[in-house]
Amino acid sequence: MKISACVIVKNEEKNIGRWLNNMRQIADEIIVVDTGSTDNTLNILENAGITPYHFTWCNDFAAAKNYAIQRATGDWIVFLDADEYFDASSVQRFRTEMTRYHANKKIGAIMCQLVNIDTDNRNKIIDTMIQVRIFRNSKDIYYKNPVHEQLVTKPGKYIMQKCFDLQIIHTGYSAGILRKKAERDLPILQQREKEAKTQNEREQLYVFFMDAYNCLGVFDKVLLYAQKAVKSNMKTLGGDIHVYECMISAMIHLGKDDKEIMTVITEARRKFPREVFFAVQLGYYYYVGRDYLQAEQYLLEARRLRQFAEKDIKAGKAVSDTSLNLMPMLYGCLGDIYIRKGQKQQALEISLEGMAYYKYNHLLTKVLYKSLLGRPVVEIIQIFDCFYDRKQDGNFLMEAIGWQTSGKFAAYYYPIHDTRDKVKLYLKTEKFQGGTAVAGQQLDLLNHSALAEVFVKQENGEETLPSVFAIMPDKYQRLSMSKAECQQDVDGRASIRLRKQMKYYE
Predict the structure, then answer these.
(1) Which end of the chain is more exposed for a tag (fewer CB within 10 A), N or C?
(2) How confident is the model at residue 118, as a pLDDT?
(3) DSSP state letter for 10
């Protein structure tokens, strides 16, 4: 069994090296088709010992991909984009899985789970879907459509096999990348619209236009094409769900009336009662409207639907999973409702469950902190250390929780870089006197942080109040409190005025 790995590239210097390393672990043949790279892509290929084929770009992705597969000599073709790669476990089991499928001559294509991650947002999982990226090398299997090309074959010729043991990571859905793709695709779509001879051909483009404008942030056009798509005769598996999702998002961005938005969400929920997305949206709108009883009802229902969806995904029944993005919002809102009800234990359980999906959500993180209030600071820090890195996540935690938190918690997580940061933390934690005693008691907790060094700074063997004065830039010393004012600051009374004056540090 011979495996051919194919790809078309243009200015993929950031991705092509990783793609080559990934494919060389599973493939016997590498086919690279360049469509006009002007960056360092060709040099990288040359250094890697790859001689690319050159294809004159004609605004047709299907034509370029068909050009590539025509040059493949393997029994099977793996056609991943340059910004896609198999995860480590999939690489290890690839040959074993393919040997099993190769024996069944009726199998013409393999459907794998594709995970879209946002590299601009801490590799957050955007969604998952099922995509065909592996297929037999046959003249009866080829690509169609200039944009959003699809693999097609003769009806009844082959069957497709789902394989969730092979997982593909896709990095091309980051916001910045999507915008560039949309700018590239839009002229092609506009040209296809001009050349369309029938209404059916025009209707096929509605969803593509909707997606392109969505990436560009032109939400009036998103709404227009989404409405056209809903009214059209073009129906695809799971397609209507995506259309309604984009429609609702566009209406929110355009500031449409809440009642109008709720009407669309309700309509979508009636059509797709098992979809998590619409149940979460309903719950969120009731939450924003402070109808916490209704919000809790829909959010709990969304949580149950999500659990059903995960079972379906594992069983290979779901085509896509677009609700992952909403999970932090679901658990954050639900947890906040429990906090408001005084049910801290339920809030803690919900927030911990939500952390498994995505930990960098301000509301969810704040709910976790609030659910732990009343416990020793050391215990709170121990729990947070299970999810967050002290050095990397300090700024995020302070943004999410706010500086109204415990001085000890802030002191532990806030990153100290220079004198200015020390001043900021010193002021924010409102420790203007008694610093030595506090630091002495909490040295282990503070882990010898720079804050502790400020606290224990001594002159002539005596504790110094002027530590805050000494390290502040001269031009701001005039804004400092007097020693008398510092004495009053034990209760935090004078610090409010100082923080207003010290805008420089905010």
Answers:
(1) C
(2) 81
(3) S
The arithmetic mean of pLDDT across residues 374-379, rounded, is 86
Residues 153 and 218 in one domain: no
Give the per-residue pLDDT at 491: 36
Q: Would residue 354 count as lying in a domain? A: no
Tokens of 67: 């050009």
- Using the structure block, give the residue that is written with the tokens 């693999």: 151
CA distance linking residue 87 with residue 430, whole number of Å: 48
Calpha distance 262→269 (Å, rounded)? 10
For 345, other C-beta atoms within 10 Å of its C-beta total 9
Residue 492 in this model has a pLDDT that exceeds 60 = no
Q: Which amino acid is residue 298, in one-letter code?
A: Y
Asked if 184 and 263 sit in the same domain, the reply is yes
β-strand pairing of 462-463 with 458-459 = antiparallel
**Residue 306, class by beta-carbon neighbours within 10 Å (0-12 exposed, 13-18 middle, 19+ buried)?**
buried
CATH number, domain containing residue 137: 3.90.550.10
Q: Residue 468's domain spans which residues?
A: 391-505
Residues 37-66, mean pLDDT to the nearest whole number: 96
Domain count, the chain: 3
**Lowest-pLDDT choice from 206-210, 319-323, 372-376:** 319-323
Same domain, 299 and 191: yes
As given in the structure block, the two tokens for residue 294 are 């209704």
Query: At which residue do the structure tokens 């294809």 appear?
Result: 55
Q: Are 322 and 116 in contact (CB under 8 A)?
A: no
